[in-house]
Batch of 3 targets.
Target 1
Amino acid sequence: MVSRGTLKRSIFSYTTSSNELEEENRLLRETLSQLREELERYRSPALMVAEVVDVLDKNAIISLPNGNKFLVQISSGIKNIVPGESVVVEQRNLTIIDRVSSSKHFNVERFVIMEKPDVNWSEIGGLDTQVQEIKEVIELPLKNPELFKKIGIHPPKGILLHGPPGTGKTLLAKAVASSTKSTFIEIVGSELVQKFIGEGAKLVKEIFQLARKKAPSIVFIDELDAIAAKRVDIGTSGEREVQRTFMQFLAELDGFKPLDNVKIIGCSNRKDILDPAVIRPGRLDRLIEVPIPDDKGLKQIFKIHTKNMSLDRKIKKDALLKKLKGFSGAEVKAVCTEAGYFAIRNNRTKVNQHDFLCAIDKIKKEEAEGDDFIRMFG
């Protein structure tokens, strides 16, 4: 005869096993449902993204990424399509079936650095003349456009900063963006040279659309000579694509009004190779040279970069500044950083004269090696 305790244990065991089987069955059903959905996704055809060129009643002209254009139908559920919009089209007959929201996302955001800088004018040394010019040309029109309307003059749409590398061109642009509370949109000119026909020009167009959306804004284009070098008659496909991008850039510049709340700052180490069209009056017509700092500038830059450093009292700054003659602002900063590392390696909390001398020698050696490399392979 089975005891009551044994019977209870058997019932509990069966109940537990039943619950486990039900839970396992539920998980298997969910897995099967997910696999069916995944299989359906694999079976469904891929859709294409195109750009609307023109709208003709219930039809539209679209442009595919390869540059081909087609007259296609618009699905009845899609209303108020306008030229310039990105849309999703079916692959077989290219019928427009949905729109892609381009107002919230710009493809160009993958290529630009967008920020709100916090650089103060006090962090820039040895460039008093350049700072004053930028304040007049960029800062004043953004902060006080009514003044120009009263006087009856039009400020430049943008400026060109030119000079050797490391002299503070980017720093100046960030400082004016910070002082005007503008969005700082930075892009390297070489990034605008794309391998597909028309892509570079499209990127330029999107950069300025983004700038208008984020206004007040400052568009900073580094290595401007990558797209704005003097045009030549050689007709290779690569050069033609660069010229398309350049022409779109000029068209965008011409589309701005002088008192718009978007300003353009171009930057180049080679002003001599720039196309005259980009620096003619009405475009980037204010040319500001940012040179290697003089003795006074070096003293200011060295003071800025050492103000938070723990320095030995016996440091002879005048002797160091003589050693730094011919250095750019970026190289002075690098010297200060390296001097700090020399102190750390020797388990000291104060940076002494010897640390700075070793740092200067190291930076000079690296600079010389870089020059040798350019001579050999440049």
Note: The longest helix spans residues 4-43.
Target 2
Amino acid sequence: MAKGFFDNKWILLSVILAIVSITLFIMLFPSLTASPQKAANMAIEYINKNILEAEGMEATLESIEDEKIKTLYRIKISIDGQSFDSFVTADGKYLFANEPIDMSEEITPEPLPEMLEKESVEIEGGFMEITDLDLCLENDKPIVYFFGSEGCPHCVWQKPIMAEVAAQFGDNISYRENFDGATDIDVLLKYGNGAVPTIIVGCKYYRVGSGEAKGEDADKEILKNVICKATGGNPSSVCN
């Protein structure tokens, strides 16, 4: 899935793992207390626990090299298929990015978006149902949100399918489409970090990502079934 202008996880990773100027290292930590393998393992463990766990990713160690400056080890880290060069002090205490990261300190994770804190179950086609939540209505009709971006090929694929299915329900739903706009962004951010495409049906059902893996016809059926849950089976000509 794409994150468009809403978010870009690689900005975070690039800041964390960027190589800082070697001259900065010369001034720091002359003592050697850990082997290269131990120091590198400490860095990998710290990255996975404190930085990547919330992203659902994992770093692995590709290689270790002694630096000419003997207070440091250069390590190559693989994250989600991309390689990053970084440095860890030989005592296994500091990982270097744009500034030192003290690996003896825990990073307090950001709180989950509001709706992700609630109990939910998967129903079909990647859609989640928030079990203890009433439908959100507008003029007694469930609100159906579709968020996307022109720069996201998955969103472009989903857009006509979503519009076609929504049109079948006519006045039985209140359909709101947001492509590269700011309308209802507060709603989107309750269900994640801004990733698109995101579909929210009656606030109770939602999916982050497209239905491409299922195929066009199957995804239309999935969307129809989920919206029918929100409308109580109306219209009967669609929800048969």
Note: The chain has a mean pLDDT of 81.
Target 3
Amino acid sequence: MPSIRAAFALGVFLLSAAITIPWQTLCLAVKGLGYKTFPNWYQRQLARLFGIHVRVYGEPIQDRGVLMVANHTSYLDILAIGGSAKLSFVAKAEVEKWPLFGTFAKLQRTVFVVRERRSQTGDARDQIRARLLDGDALMLFPEGTSNDGNRVLPFKSALMGAAEVVIGHDANGKPLYPPVQPVSVAYVGVHGLPMGRENRPLYAWYGDMDLVPHLWESLTTGPLDVVIQFHPPLYVDQVGGRKALAQKAEAIVRAGQAQLLAGRMPETPPAPQNKPAVALAEAVA
């Protein structure tokens, strides 16, 4: 039965891709038809299709340009986070060349980064600044890689320099900077039961794991519970520069993930989600 369910989910995904890729390509070409909001809807449907149950605490900033920074566990983060807020991602340049997934990344207006080249990192930082000035929400994984989901790696500060762009001035002429919103992501359950440290690598994708076999194993293992916490925003001028900003955001994300993994959920109730749309499996049936 798990194999049948996994095969069905992958089949529906491939069928939906054949429909949505041309549609989103058209949306981007005309800069309309919900070209910014469609990926959010689609990823929410894929999360449901793949059995990713998401609880969200806190409110993602959606009314102005914002740089979100989160810990990174797996490619499944994209569906969990992307279905919880309208945003684009910042990803390593290799993702652009991945079959199918690279196409989806480009259609979501991903900013691709060549981390090994300092000059191109600067180009990516400029792209991020431009997108923030344009009012977009961007998700950056400052660890620079994914890990086993049981910890948070040190945040790199290079791309967080985009938060130093001045977006305006207040009534007294003081410069205003874009918000940087820390986000904690925790994989907390499987089949509705608490997930132990030893089980997270079934979903976490890191090291030299092959994508397709790992995806199949994840789907056959069963439904996954993910908790996302959007923390209050930080501002670069309030913490003393981009390096201090990276350290502060890292501390907040690490503490948040540790609490979520320990089963200590925030006192505030989960943020209200959008009205549930028709499940993707039903929509393409």
Note: Confidence is low (pLDDT under 50) at residues 274-285.
